[in-house]
Give the backbone structure.
Amino acid sequence: MDFILCPTMDITNLTSIARDVCPFPNYDPSPLFLNMLSINSSLHLRNHYTAVQSSLTPGQLEDFTQSLRTTFGRNGNVTLGGVGVVALSLAVLFDTLARQVRGEWVSESGAIPGLFIKDPRGNYPPQVYTVSEYLRLVPHIANNPKRMKQETERCHKKLVKEDDYLNKLGENQTLSIKEDITAFNLLLTNIFEISLDVHHRRIKNTLENELVTPFKRQPKDVIFTFNCDPESKTRLHEVAKLHFFNSMIKLSCAFQNPDSMADKRDDFDLKANALRSWE
């Protein structure tokens, strides 16, 4: 990935005011995506685990802890759970279990809520569903290195095929890869592909890059989606464009040097970080 001058501009107030006038998508990347795939993922995951547990009532926390014990056993250790795609899968699992113990309905398929930029029409590129499927599977196989290696390779291969398929179709499809939401979600899945490669190297305990993931540049002529009178769009378009590219650069900056993360091999101890007795 090319060196990028990372932004320092905070445009939160500007976009908030603009969005009140004319609704347009929120392009801020999910904190889970940014934090769990970052160099400080172990710390972020511990903080998220604590925050989720603290948000539950005693009864809900008991059910939450029991679900984790059922999945990971009495030992409570998750192999490489503090880093990369496994850390992200655990964070997603914590949120999912918390919603379930509160009595909320949670879908077991489709795009993981809150992880990608929401499309009001529900139109997501196939890569979003592939990533979501993998993240839901990982907690159940994280302590099985052979299965993790197989599923990581399978997921990466599928994502590369889906990338090639969309590129060959171009704009001759119902899903426009130039639309703002789709373009940003494709950037997220591309970064996830790179994270898969990093995790594959962790599993094999090597720094050699075996899963090739070319970094895909975003389309130059992004189509922005608005929900307002066309006459209001001129200045608002500039604000949306600024927000879009500012968020894109922020995301890309977080993953400028993925090779530096390959030697991080932190497990995650659910038992040691539990707020309720694990036994």
